[in-house]
Amino acid sequence: MKHLLMLLLLSAHTSAWQIVNDTVMGGRSSSGIEAIDDYIRFSGYLSLENNGGFASARKMIRVNANDPINGLELEVRGDGRQYQLRVQTDQNIGRASYAADFPTTANEWTSVTLRPEDFYLTFRGLTFSDYPTIDFNRTQVISIFITDKQTGPFQLDLKQISALN
Length: 165
Known about the structure:
Elements: E1 2-8, E2 17-21, E3 30-36, E4 39-46, E5 55-60, E6 71-77, E7 82-89, E8 97-103, E9 109-114, E10 120-123, E11 126-128, E12 139-146, E13 152-164
């Protein structure tokens, strides 16, 4: 069974997203988020200059699920590049996030299912091997990242994120 988890990504909600790019560390990547019809578009330019190489958009959320969440399903349309969904929960130490990579098909809407075993704990490019399994019911922040080390424009459309029970 699945239900809409936290967002129907409509125009009124784009102001709740915060852009965080490698410029915080001297990089030159750029990105933005905009509402188009019933989805949001995360797009920009990924640069590897000055040790850069990431662009992201994040949103604080509140999970209102009574039942345990056993995974997430994203409805996305991409550009053929690989993206990453990151989830911060109240179980994380510091600002570490659980991350799961997912591919996209150029110009085609697809569903991406991410289960707890698809997520690993990461912080500033470091990956940790000993960490608790993600508890989606404790989600506080959700982020979309591109870190695929390919210079150039990118575009990811995101229609919804659903919880899987």
